[in-house]
Amino acid sequence: MSASKTTKNLETGAPSSAQRDSKLSNFLCFAVYSANLAFGRAYKPILDKLNLTYTQYIAMVALSEKDDQTVGTLGEKLFLESNTLTPMLKKLETLGYIQRKRDPADERQVRLSLTAAGRDLVATDPGAPLVEATGLGNDFPAVQKSVVRLRNNLLKAKQDGSAKD
């Protein structure tokens, strides 16, 4: 999304013009979107060697933070619905990286944990070379925090109703 004629340019803070706004390079959302695509392309050869997708890998990283999570909790962390997660989690279970089990207190809930093989894989940190590949150097933590703040602000704005459909 770009700024309108009466607002400031999100990239520069300068007043917007119709001509500048129509340039794709001025869309912050496109910069974030295309950076996400670039990350996916950078991760692909690394994860292909491990027979994993990016989504499978980040699910394993999220599970490494806390054992015995429910599918719902993991879905919230990853911004994914259970109908997207379930086939992916079955594949990770088949690969021997996670264990899925029904919650004895509530059979409707499926609990997830990494196996020893899953923990070992996450511990190797296959994505570590990509930190350097970003070229951000010491700015990496600040950029990561800014992107998280951006995401959280957008989610809050939507939740508060200030980001209209």
UniProtKB/TrEMBL annotation:
Highest taxon above the source species: Bacteria
UniProt KW keywords: Cytoplasm, DNA-binding, Transcription, Transcription regulation
Protein's recorded name: Organic hydroperoxide resistance transcriptional regulator
Domain HTH marR-type: 25-156
SUPFAM superfamilies linked: Winged helix' DNA-binding domain
Database matches in Pfam families: Staph_reg_Sar_Rot (PF22381)
Source organism: Rhizobium mesoamericanum STM3625
PROSITE patterns found in the cross-reference section: HTH_MARR_2
GO terms of biological process kind: response to stress
Gene Ontology, cellular component aspect: cytoplasm
Single GO MF descriptor: DNA binding
Localization terms from the record: Cytoplasm
Lineage: Bacteria, Pseudomonadati, Pseudomonadota, Alphaproteobacteria, Hyphomicrobiales
